[in-house]
Amino acid sequence: MKYTPSIAFDEFAGSAKGVTAAKSRGRKYIRNKGYGNTSSTASQSDVKAIFSQLAKSFKTLTSSQIAAWNALAQTQEGRSTLGTRSKISGLNLYLRLNHWVVACGGTALATPPTLAGVESPASATLSLSASAFNITLDSIPADVTDLKLVVRASAPQTNGISDAYAKAAVVGDPLTPVVTAIELKTDYDAKYEAPSAAAPKVFVKWFYVNTTTGEKSGEMMGLATLSA
Predict the structure, then answer these.
(1) Contact (Cβ atoms closer than 8 angstroms) between residue 78 and residue 86
(2) CATH 2.60.40.10 boundaries in the chain
């Protein structure tokens, strides 16, 4: 809530005692101070820890190594928060690739790799019941030596929700691709509450990561619904 301050606050700006004084379009006002949400899950903390360490390690690279990352970044692109395409920096590319290298158990790359792209995974069958939650890929590449499967899933959603893919977060560690059923329930229930009749829908994404280069494939999507 905003309040119009008295002349006593004419030059006041900033936050104090739970309120914030500010100025917008020539008008001064006071509003309740916002603190945001400081809570984070264990998985979010792990991701932040990886990026924090990588940001520090980038500063230790040699000038030639940084120049190489900057040069490779010019051939790549990213997307802004509004979805528009944009160029990325060498640091951005270093973080993007090395995040998955480290998340898959490898050591961060000091020099940029040769990028070849990663083919998207096949479609899959999702099976969700009170006692099991599995994903079964229809097929896998002939050589999966440098590939890991990453699964993202939303928290349980009600029947009224038709799209919650944007809420999907990584569930468990990167997996070795196989054509047999891959069990997700243990990691899923540890991250979220188990699906129920009131919230029976789980929106799932899955993709491959090249553990050597850190490249990520396109994502596949599917809906898992709790069976009776």
Answers:
(1) yes
(2) 124-225
pLDDT for residue 20 is more than 60: no
What is the distance between the alpha carbons of residues 170 and 105, in angstroms, rounded to a whole number? Answer: 16
Pick the CATH number of 124-225 from 2.60.40.10, 2.40.50.100, 2.40.50.140, 2.120.10.70: 2.60.40.10
Provide the 3-class DSSP secondary structure of residue 2: strand
Quickly state the pLDDT bin for 42 (edges 50, 70, 90).
Answer: low
- Cβ neighbourhood burial of 97 (10 Å; 0-12, 13-18, 19+): buried
d(CA 22, CA 28): 6
pLDDT tens digits, 134-164 = 999 999 999 999 999 999 999 999 999 999 9
State both tokens at 88. 């990325």
